[in-house]
Amino acid sequence: MISVNDFKNGLTIEVDHDLWRIVEFQHVKPGKGSAFVRSTLKNLRTGAVQEKTFRSTEKVEQAQIDTKSMQYLYVDGDSYYFMDNDTYEQLSLTADQLGDALKYLKENMMVSIIMHGSETLGIDIPKTVDLEVKETEPGIRGNTSSGGSKPATLETGLVVQVPFFINVGDVLTINTTDGTYISRA
């Protein structure tokens, strides 16, 4: 059990028999009454985001979350296969379990599988990934200094806004937290 005063962003807690990750929290001390903690929680099973307020004296159960480094192998229908490089054990996840991470997943990529006991909750992908441009409009000569952008479709199907000088075949570094272009790889 931990006190709500010890909350940190990214901490995983158990509330109402469900697993929640703290996205954001704020300690509030009103002039009248007792202090409380206002928090934004994300459900690790459903992906739902909820705001919840805790009294400052309240205690919650900290969830035991394990991460296992695995390599993404291939997709077969709706199943995505991962392998533990130490034991060669394979794990199959569905598109629902992967969520937004599907936009950045490449074969042979190393990811962290999030587990609670024997239940697989999802994956954590690196903060940045390098993806190849498969489709974009050609840059128009003299248009590179204006600072504009154009859409580009990457090898995973993700569409991002890129500068005019990016061409088909370029490998780009993409931020996985918000899906934005960072630089050429």
From TrEMBL:
The gene is efp. One of its GO terms (biological process) is peptide biosynthetic process. Transmembrane segments: none annotated. NCBIfam families: efp, PRK00529.1. GO terms for cellular component: cytosol. InterPro entries: Elong-fact-P_C (IPR015365), NA-bd_OB-fold (IPR012340), Rib_uL2_dom2 (IPR014722), Transl_elong_fac_P/YeiP (IPR020599), Transl_elong_KOW-like (IPR013185), Transl_elong_P/YeiP_cen (IPR001059), Transl_elong_P/YeiP_CS (IPR013852), Transl_elongation_fac_P (IPR011768). PROSITE patterns: EFP. GO terms for molecular function: translation elongation factor activity. Pathway: Protein biosynthesis; polypeptide chain elongation. Belongs to the elongation factor P family. It is found in: Cytoplasm. This is Elongation factor P. CDD domains: S1_EF-P_repeat_1, S1_EF-P_repeat_2. The lineage of its organism: Bacteria, Bacillati, Bacillota, Bacilli, Lactobacillales. Its main location: cytoplasm. Keywords: Cytoplasm, Elongation factor, Protein biosynthesis. Involved in peptide bond synthesis. Stimulates efficient translation and peptide-bond synthesis on native or reconstituted 70S ribosomes in vitro. Probably functions indirectly by altering the affinity of the ribosome for aminoacyl-tRNA, thus increasing their reactivity as acceptors for peptidyl transferase. Residues 67-121 form the Translation elongation factor P/YeiP central domain.
